[in-house]
Amino acid sequence: MKKLVYFLTGIRSEYDILAPVIEAVSATPELEAGVIVTGAHLTQIHENSVRQIENDGHRIVARIDSLLASDGLSGRVKGAALQLTGMSDLFARERPNFIVVMGDREESITGALAGVYHHIPVVHIGGGDHADDGNVDNPIRHAVSKIAHLHMATTPLSGQRLRALGEEDWRIHVVGASGLDRLFSTPQLGRNDLEAALGVDWNGAPYVVLLYHPTITDFDDAGVHIASITKVLEETRLHVAIMMPNSDPGNQAIVGELNSFAQRCGRVKLFRFLDRLVFVNMLRHANALVGNSSAGILEAPSLGLPVVNIGLRQRGREHAGNVIFTDYSREEIRNAIVKSVFDQAYREHASAVTNPYGDGTTGRKIAEILANTEVNKKLMHKNFLM
Amino acid sequence: MKKLVYFLTGIRSEYDILAPVIEAVSATPELEAGVIVTGAHLTQIHENSVRQIENDGHRIVARIDSLLASDGLSGRVKGAALQLTGMSDLFARERPNFIVVMGDREESITGALAGVYHHIPVVHIGGGDHADDGNVDNPIRHAVSKIAHLHMATTPLSGQRLRALGEEDWRIHVVGASGLDRLFSTPQLGRNDLEAALGVDWNGAPYVVLLYHPTITDFDDAGVHIASITKVLEETRLHVAIMMPNSDPGNQAIVGELNSFAQRCGRVKLFRFLDRLVFVNMLRHANALVGNSSAGILEAPSLGLPVVNIGLRQRGREHAGNVIFTDYSREEIRNAIVKSVFDQAYREHASAVTNPYGDGTTGRKIAEILANTEVNKKLMHKNFLM
Amino acid sequence: MKKLVYFLTGIRSEYDILAPVIEAVSATPELEAGVIVTGAHLTQIHENSVRQIENDGHRIVARIDSLLASDGLSGRVKGAALQLTGMSDLFARERPNFIVVMGDREESITGALAGVYHHIPVVHIGGGDHADDGNVDNPIRHAVSKIAHLHMATTPLSGQRLRALGEEDWRIHVVGASGLDRLFSTPQLGRNDLEAALGVDWNGAPYVVLLYHPTITDFDDAGVHIASITKVLEETRLHVAIMMPNSDPGNQAIVGELNSFAQRCGRVKLFRFLDRLVFVNMLRHANALVGNSSAGILEAPSLGLPVVNIGLRQRGREHAGNVIFTDYSREEIRNAIVKSVFDQAYREHASAVTNPYGDGTTGRKIAEILANTEVNKKLMHKNFLM
Amino acid sequence: MKKLVYFLTGIRSEYDILAPVIEAVSATPELEAGVIVTGAHLTQIHENSVRQIENDGHRIVARIDSLLASDGLSGRVKGAALQLTGMSDLFARERPNFIVVMGDREESITGALAGVYHHIPVVHIGGGDHADDGNVDNPIRHAVSKIAHLHMATTPLSGQRLRALGEEDWRIHVVGASGLDRLFSTPQLGRNDLEAALGVDWNGAPYVVLLYHPTITDFDDAGVHIASITKVLEETRLHVAIMMPNSDPGNQAIVGELNSFAQRCGRVKLFRFLDRLVFVNMLRHANALVGNSSAGILEAPSLGLPVVNIGLRQRGREHAGNVIFTDYSREEIRNAIVKSVFDQAYREHASAVTNPYGDGTTGRKIAEILANTEVNKKLMHKNFLM
């Protein structure tokens, strides 16, 4: 009988990273994949990204509507409660062999809790990562690691951190970042085809990509912060391709300013959603990536793309030499963008870095580990190095 | 303005340990205490122990009905969801300055999550403790520690474990076990008065106390295990005072066997609930404590009481030299009870141990720390030693 | 494609009535049945009656753990919320063609609400019934009727009441009580075989059956009320077969007194659960049925069994001439029992009544109606006679 | 001791109608008002209208975050569950003397259920109203009436309908529509001041007000329907003042088209929110009200304002002679607008109608009834005329 592997996902950015693992699990004869879809996937805010999961052909075993409209702190907790409630009846009925969660979001901890209380082994992707941003996500990630029975660490350093935090060696597998799997397999688009796909007419002129998400620690100032960034970008007179932010608190202020920026500045193009093909090639052709997206840390090094990371998000994460970190000072931001786009020596350096997040075979590695792991007392009985 | 300190409690045994801290917080001019009551407190199974909290004069700020009747794994998860939901609206409205959780139960992790997502500092009592029982409680306790902003460790060893698991030194306070605070302050009852209070007529004959709770890891065998213990106790012909178990899964099998034991054996007396006064003096006069209660680890050493701890619960916890650990073999259990009750050399040794869990001033220490802790960015921004 | 008919059930007594309808639906080629199991079915209190549903071979489409342990008013509301939450995700995913609810319990109104808000036709069994007991169930039943799209009324009088309350004629079907379907199909047991099955040795002596459930309107007095009944039964010196009460508030006081009655009186036998075969034959051979069970109203007339109905439960329901209604006065209860058991003229009269609840073909009738009902705008667009 | 009267509100339009009743209850010495705020009030979509409730000086006894972001059918059911859960703990703790609900929304039925299961009298405002739109709201409203203990009917006809649906005469009070109370008390603004307040420069030219909400029965076509309306309004070349729709499913399509209409047509002004003062005077000076708002039915007759009501919403409600009902045909809509704005004979007729919804003293009447109603068995024990 096949081992049943459940994945839990609440937002497109998370699914994008899980997808290569789900595909690899589905392609493994000993395993069967099921996806629990929750959170932003089920809302129009993100254009019901659940449809992408369906289109990718994955079996959706439950849809747990959980995102509150209130865009505040208590909504996060209540949404987590709805996820727990939904998984409670599901796990009692279905009893998967593994529940896989990723990173540091609400669904990471709710999936881990629902799993461990049902005596189902919890597999955690991204444990041991670290972003020194004072954000709630960081302690949540480590809390999930305490509960998880298997760790799929993205880098050797993350694996060491898991050990330093008391996790047993044999539970830790360094597998790289699965987000890279798709990067390598995404076909190339020429610059002209890309411009057509984006609906822009920039004639090969330099452009930067802006990906800026709200940060929980300073979401009250989200409006001020994004305004500093758009102001600098307006002054640089560069073309700018912008992706809309995720749905964390603070999101609405950012959306408002981005809309206003696009209205007042003709060189700016706003995207709610882009195909993977178009998105990856937009990064490939870009002169720099600006904002605070994890794409700057994880994927940009494999593309040799210079990155300007602004504010606390991603701060302190393991990264290659293609990233300049700034705070919200306009001067700092401006200098970093100018260096990233126009300083040829720096650009050459950035194009030649080695990516600490691996080589694009992460999904396959995880599937093999799950296929070869026996669910027994040893796996379920957690000891800690202390 | 006073700092508002919320406590979360779901079961009598937990409240008994929290109560000295709540009292000390209430007695501190800079602090104000509020109690969130949930779980078993609100059910008749435990005779609505919420009434004891009311009678103790504490301000109850919310009652969150959360215990499912289904006595299974999924009920635990659903109950946790109800706790999160209830705290969500409460914290959004009231914004306490601290939320205090204890130990390793569902309410420990739900209180920690509700707190951290509302940016309210989480105070964890009992972090760094360790019971090597393969139980879900152990990873949950460590997960709560990852989230908590202040650790109130019960022993120096627990403090060291927190550090080994990556917690920063300045967050860790070794304060002892608050459960001892009440032990020292409970008045003495003579043996005759005790027998009257218990409604028994044992004329000063030796007796043991049996406190046996279900263990999550082997709750399917709870009926078999308790039957081994009652069988041995029946053969020893000792008098036995029994407290009913807590409401964890497996509870019903134990209750059934204990009822049967009491019906078939006249030397046995069953108690659903005892006043603190009576309970403590029942331990003071007992010849041994049998079962798997934390009282054997925490409080028995201060009373010089020999303890027979059966099975995985409490296994591996820091303890003094008054405890014999056994598995479920009847012979092991019998030998340990005989030694504890009748071996005078051993009994003298057990009566002279030092209690690693402190000296009964834990509540006061915690209250002082909270009164002197400033809620600021440093407190809220967790770093980890790794 | 088959029409998918979902049934919602929360307690054994309700399932017993639904079961013949589920069977008839399953036996109808155009229909497919699914059962949503919730409430007391999933708890040990009722020995996990979900197993009976499984053993009956029905497809369980969801288990929604919902019964709170708190045995109070707020637990009822919270349990209803868990039912709504569970059905929400289920209906969004599965979209049954009909949702069938019964009577006047929490799951009747939650099923109706989940259905109507998902635009799924709601079929209500037992609308238009009436029990003038001041109980919350009565208004709930009528509220469900306002929402329901099809009414399966048990008697012509109930059908008339639905019309009087504004329901359109064409939505109302008088189909009888499905509880009778199984009564007629249950094989006969001789008196000796019955005694063997019950584990009693009554040698054919007269006995009464006691079925007494808590009533929401006076649940605080449940202990006093049941004590009056057991006192009278103790004095009559009749043999008594007792079924345990359902899990409504007040249940624990009744359970306590029944246990005590059985302990102090050797002629009494207590049952938590009986096979349908044994239960029906226990009624067939009984000299009277005492208490407040709906079996006295619905099934007893078809068996010619005299009934003493005590208190407000069942009061005011349509009934045949085999029922004597009493309040809690011991004298009234005693007189009614004596008349029912020993007054031959009355017993002959009671044995010859006509059952207003039909002839045991209810399940088949309902299945036919559902097979022949088109789900269209007319069905979904409720008008009211007013 | 004052009687505690709780009001439940989930959306601004509902609060606007409840507010005069809350004010009147607060002004009554025997009563004390508390407001439970839930649903859209707590979201930024409606600019956190909870702040208006705070600014009005009412005591908010609970905030129950309940609106899901998913904008679908299952979100409605899940939101209802969150309301029930929140009220469950609240009512167990506080036990108000009355819970007042209004109309036919989710919070109407959840408030009624939470009340009746806690044995708290339910007061229903707007029972017996009728809108023959095939909408789920209609049966919900009647279901709430079945549960409610006191009915505050808006018109004599609504009172008669309640009787026809089986409600007892003495529970029914015809009190008018409280929405009118504020209309009469709102000060007058001159046309110039109004234009200044609206930020428009229309120089006294004729204008219409557009208020169009999604309808549950055809929310899939919401985008097509609103496009027909905007197209006609674009052709008429009238000035148009538009209020944004409520948050029911379909809302996003309407918002999209209205934004587009305002961008392509200079005579159009869009408002997310208007002060009562400005809103009422906007209606007073308008030449017609277009759309499907209840303001056209309830308030417009008291202002002598011609109304064009499009589609099923409000269809079949009791109304005066100032309303023309149309379907979505552009020609019908155009003819009705032209007649309303330009046909002087019709405009004179419309200006002189009598409002069936009363005279603006509804709040005071309800407060008096609650002050004079004893909460006793008679009130709680519902009988039905049938």
Automatic annotation (TrEMBL), chains A, B, C, D:
GO MF, any single term: hydrolase activity, hydrolyzing O-glycosyl compounds
Keywords: Glycosidase, Hydrolase
Residue stretches making up the UDP-N-acetylglucosamine 2-epimerase domain: 24-370
Keyword Nucleotidyltransferase assigned: no
Matches recorded under InterPro entries: UDP-GlcNAc_Epase, UDP_GlcNAc_Epimerase_2_dom, WecB-like
Coiled coil: none
GO terms of biological process kind: UDP-N-acetylglucosamine metabolic process
UniProt EC number: 3.2.1.183
Pfam families registered for this protein in UniProt: Epimerase_2
Listed NCBIfam families: NeuC_NnaA
Protein name (database record): UDP-N-acetylglucosamine 2-epimerase (Hydrolyzing)
UniProt source species: Stappia sediminis
